[in-house]
Amino acid sequence: FVTWKEEEENKTISKYVRQRGSKTLKNGDIVMNYHCCRSGTYKPKRKGVNSLKSQGSAKIGISFPAIIKVRQSTENVVVQYFPNHKNHENQLEHFRLSESDRAAVAVLVVDEHKNGKPVAFCFSNKSSEDVFRIYFSAIKNAVGIIETTTFMTDDAPAFYNAWSYVMGTVKNVLLCAWHVTRNWHQNLNKIKNPEKRKIVNKALKAVKEGLCLETFSKLMKQFIQELNIFGKYFQQNYAKRPEKWVYCYRKGLGINTNMYLESP
């Protein structure tokens, strides 16, 4: 039921909530009613004047018949669904996202003290290139085109694809070292021998953090020759694009090895 309810809410841009608790019948069945969150009149929880959010109350001041009636027994769940959202429009500012649907994206910049500072946020129930285009377009409308020489992101092409579409291409596109390391750790389980896994993990760190291009090339060649199953994953995903994640390629880009801009 919960899965169906969330899918229906996403499809109709709505949110159904319980205004009262559940009721248990004599036969043990549980009855619950879920009303559209915009139905009814706003009532402050405390006495006195409470400040509303800038977008105002989600309540429209009247009740309407959009409701989900649920009867749950030990054998099944019976649902009666009345999707009539009469007298109100689907306004995004009043659309509530469930915890599982929320995605937060932030744009960070480097200040004069070389600290990463978040300057723009996006909360959405989707993480797609289309959403990020809207997000970056909003930034562009507020401050104009941002010309940057370096763009750092996790290993998801949607971020940079959207940025380059809105703001233009960037010369240096880097992968966040924290995300790279996390991906490696998730795939190191391909190596069954714990001691071998430990050695490979240490070698990965040495390869990634090498500041000398010549030394990196030697380490890389030796590293790949010694790997087997994990090596195939590494070859496919990282060996062909070291300029995006190896520190020696970051010299002079303003992204130093203490990773002040990267995720903790």
* Element pattern in H and E: HEEEEEEEHEHEHHHH
Q: How many individual β-strands?
A: 9
What does the average pLDDT come to? 78
Helix-and-strand structural type: alpha+beta
- The span between the termini is 37 Å
Helix content: 25-40%
- Taking all Cα atoms into account, the compactness measure Rg is 26 Å
Helix count? 7
Name the shape in a single word.
Answer: flat
Low-confidence parts: 51-56, 257-264
Strand content: 15-25%
Protein name: MULE domain-containing protein
Organism: Trichonephila clavata (Joro spider)
Describe this entry's structure for a reader.
It contains 7 helices and 9 strands. The two termini are 37 Å apart. The strands form 3 sheets. Strands 1, 2, 3, 4 and 5 form a 5-stranded antiparallel sheet that branches. A two-stranded antiparallel ribbon has the order 6-7. With 264 residues, it is α+β, with helices and mostly antiparallel strands. It has helices spanning 2-12, 129-143, 157-167, 177-187, 194-208, 213-226, 229-239; strands at residues 16-18, 23-24, 30-36, 67-72, 77-82, 103-110, 116-124, 150-153, 172-175. Helix 2 (129-143) packs parallel to helix 3, helix 4 (177-187) packs antiparallel against helix 5 (194-208) and helix 5 packs antiparallel against helix 6 (213-226). The longest helix has 15 residues, at 129-143.
